[in-house]
Amino acid sequence: MPLHRSLRARGWAVTFALLAYVVCAGLYISGERVHIAEVTSALDRLARHERALSLAEVAVNSALGDVGEALRQAELPAVTAELRLHLETSRRQLGELEEHDPGYVLLQRTLLRNQGSLDAQPEVGNWLELQAALRRAADDLDIRHQRLMDQRQLLDAGYKRRYDAVTVESMLLAAVGLVSFGSLAAWFFTQLAHDIGRLDEHARRIVAGLRGVPLAVRREDELGRLMQAVNRMADDLDERERHIQLDIQRRSHEDKMLAVGALAAGVAHEINNPLAVIGGVAQELAGAEPGQMTPEQLAQSARLILAQVERAGGVARQLAEMTALQPAEQDWIDLNALLRRVVRLVGYDRRYRLLSWEIKTDDALPAVRNSAHALQQVLMQMTALACDALVAGSAGPVILRVQTMQTEGGVAVQMLFPPVIDFARPEVQRGLLLCRATIEPLRGQLAFGQDEGALQRIRLVLPADSGSATG
Fold it and tell me: Which residue among 4, 128, 129, 366 sits deepest, i.e. has the most Cβ atoms within 10 Å of its Cβ?
């Protein structure tokens, strides 16, 4: 089978496709998260910028306050240590802001130049220039602070939009993947379950013997191969059943010919004896001279001929009665009479001339509603099985006991004989299977076992109506 057509390959392909989808979706979401990380970094830088700018504003405003206080005095003082500290702090904070914007360096240099002028000549003009420079620096820092606040609001809004977008996209990708692969899996397994159901139904039809129409194969994977194998199995079973049927017919014909030959030999023996007596009497009458035989002798010879003719006629009537076709449909059966008929019919077989029959029937045995044809066939098979084993395993006369009896909820036919049946022989097994296959549809049970003592037992049990007439 090509690899791409197998169920395993399709399963791996779907697995790889799902993995690729997950990887692509993850890469896309990761890319979106990179933008979020960039916005977060910008917000972090902006926060650090705002903190440094706030410190610079505090320092500049403090220095501006000290300069204003000095200008309000009647006599201008020299630059105080506190003012120097505030100016130094302002310049340091403005220097730290250089990493965010180089424009802060200009403010730092302006303050440094004005402080230098004031230190050189502490006059009103230099104080005023320092005050103006500090005021300009404070205004510039305030403007810059306002811009940072506006920029932070824009970054916050952008961060929220990006975060919401990534959340929605993640849920959408998950939903698309779930729906797509879920629908694909549901469709695939639905088709698979449908085809398995078709295969199961077809297999049940094959078991039931309905093998006329092959199963339509619409797949090219392992299940399709299995369907094709089931179709081939159905064809092989049909072919095998045809061979078995032919073999059964051949074996049945052989068995029938053997039975007919044995029956013919037995009947010929039974009829030849009266014919021989009649022939002898006829020869004696034909060879007698006129007046040699008295009327009493002639009458005695005639009575002997009539007796032998009646004997031969009785044998013919018994044979016709025993070989009459029994009805196949179910009807009330006298099991005792059926058993006697089978024993008389088997008794004509000269192979069993050394066997003695001991028949014991239950006169109170209820009638059974069953198929006389099937029961006669099973009784013949049971009797022939026991008789063949006895003839092959015994050198002298043997007694075969046959009896009928009532059982709980039914009636039984039982045969007792010495243990001579070898159940391992193929012909014995075939006979047992045939008997059981015939009796099971009639709700009968066939059992084989060891009776008390050293006798083997074959027992046929049939259901019976407790209120039916006796046999």
Answer: 366
Give the tens place of pLDDT for each residue, 127-184.
888 888 888 888 988 998 999 999 999 989 988 998 899 899 999 999 999 999 899 8
Residue-wise pLDDT for 16-48, tens only, equals 999 999 999 999 998 888 888 888 998 998 999
Please give the pLDDT value at position 8: 81
By DSSP bridging, strand 330-333 and strand 368-371 are: antiparallel
Q: What pTM was estimated for this model as a whole?
A: 0.46
Residue 343 and residue 232: Cα distance in Å, rounded? 48
CB 323 within 8 A of CB 345: yes
State the amino acid at position 352 in one-letter form: Y
- Residues sharing a CB contact under 8 Å with residue 221, sequence separation 6 or more, in sequence order: 1, 5, 6, 7, 10
Distance separating alpha carbons of residues 471 and 333, to the nearest angstrom: 8
Nearest to 81 by CA among 70, 95, 72: 70
Asked if residue 155 lies in contact with residue 39, where contact means CB atoms within 8 angstroms, the answer is yes
CA distance 460 to 411: 8
Determine the angle formed by the axes of helices 104-120 and 81-96, rounding to 10 degrees. 160
**Strand pairing partners for 470?**
366
CA 292/CA 297 separation, integer angstroms: 10
Give the CA distances from residue 37 to residues 33, 45, 158, 265, in Å, rounded to whole numbers and listed in that order: 6, 12, 12, 111
Relative to beta strand 445-450, strand 410-417 is unpaired
Q: In angstroms, rounded to a whole number, what is the distance separating the alpha carbons of residues 292 and 191?
A: 105
Rounded distance between C-alpha atoms, residue 420 and residue 388, angstroms:
9
Cα torsion angle, 403, 405, 407, 413, sign? positive
Find, among 420, 316, 424, 403, the residue nearest to 361 by Cα: 403
Supply the DSSP symbol for 364. T
